[in-house]
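REVIEWER CHECKLIST
Item 1: Sequence provided? yes
Item 2: Single chain? yes
Item 3: Sequence as submitted:
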Amino acid sequence: MVITTQCCIAGGGPAGLMLGYLLARSGIEVIVLERVTSVKLV
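Item 4: Structure as written out by the authors:
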């Protein structure tokens, strides 16, 4: 499988997600990669 994107962000923490959001909002095609597959709600 091949995924094509303009920007790849490694890390889905607060900073990575915010960067992905801001870039996507400005029209840049973004993918955010995260190693951990589960989400822990506090």
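Item 5: Key structural point noted by reviewer: Strands lie at 7-10, 30-33.
Item 6: Recommendation: ____
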